[in-house]
Amino acid sequence: MMCLAKYSFFYSYLSICQYNFKLLFQIYNKIYLFL
User: Fold this and answer.
1) This protein's superkingdom (predicted)?
2) Exposure string (b/e) for 1-35, b if CB count within 10 Å is 16 or more?
3) Residue ranges of domains in the chain
4) In terms of pTM, does the model score above 0.70?
């Protein structure tokens, strides 16, 4: 059960990182287009 909790935490952490990466990528694209 502890393993499952760790896995779900790791999965949610990955999804948050992926979301932040997409957000940063969009901002980077906007800045790049602005320049």
Assistant:
1) Bacteria
2) eeeeeeeeeeeeeeeeeeeeeeeeeeeeeeeeeee
3) 1-35
4) no
